Amino acid sequence: MKKKRLIILPHDVSIITGKSIRASQRLLKDIHFVLGKLPHQPISIQEFADYMGLDVEEVMRVVD
């Protein structure tokens, strides 16, 4: 059984959105702010999908 990740990384965001790594880092930082998360708290794939209005299953297929 393949392990599934819970956390989304800037590289994943870059692949999904077509943005640069730096732009992806800024997007994740914006999501942190909107969700009221602390800097040490990561963004989950579910939170990213919800924020972007994407289907979580599609996002999971891309990041796996």
Tell the overall outline. Answer: globular
Q: Determine the N-to-C terminus distance.
A: 13 Å
* Residue fraction in strands: under 5%
Q: How many domains, in number, for the residues?
A: 1
- What structural class do you assign from the helix and strand content? mainly alpha
Q: What is the residue-mean pLDDT, rounded to a whole number?
A: 94
Poorly predicted parts? none
Largest sheet: none
Task: Please explain how this structure is put together.
The chain is mainly alpha-helical. It has one domain. The chain has helices spanning 10-17, 21-35, 45-52, 56-63. Helix 1 crosses helix 2. The chain is globular. The model has no long low-confidence stretch (mean pLDDT 94).
What's the arrangement of secondary structure elements?
Elements: H1 10-17, H2 21-35, H3 45-52, H4 56-63
Helix pairs in contact: 1-2
Provide the descriptors you would attach to this structure in a database record.
globular, mainly alpha, 4 helices, 64 residues, single chain
Would you kindly provide a brief summary of this structure?
The protein has 64 residues and is an all-alpha fold. It has helices at 10-17, 21-35, 45-52, 56-63.
